[in-house]
Amino acid sequence: MLKLLHVGTYEVDGIGVSCYHTHLSVFENILSHTYLREDEFLVTDMVAGNDAFSGTLYTQFDTLCLIVEPTHESVSMVKSYLELMSKAETSTKICIIANKVEDENDLEYLKKNNIIPDFVFEYEKQIKHARQNGEIFISQRQNQTWKALYESLTK
Question: Which is nearest to 57 in space by CA: 112, 126, 7?
């Protein structure tokens, strides 16, 4: 069974006066009161960047998957996140996932910046084109990477 939960959005009357972090604290509270059976998993998509450190959100998970693209901005954010995790001295496992990798130069760029991905999703034009048309496309390569990621996270 799949259950979806949406936490937080902006309403027109809150623009310029409300803070997204209030939604994060609600989410933290929900997570801290969620009990899972041994065969159940909770997967969430958090806000990008360091906002998880505005509260205790970064401590709420057994594993955090950080998605990095081979760009300066993305690498800088992942480095910052890893540094904050180190200073927070949390036992949360970190999994680095490289996304939109086009060639060996992209992997070398990540390695040169001390980002060693656990998993790599290659850039595929078919995915972009499918999304532009509101469709879903999963290639054989992607499917294999998803399976390996799932197996790694469920050990």
Answer: 7
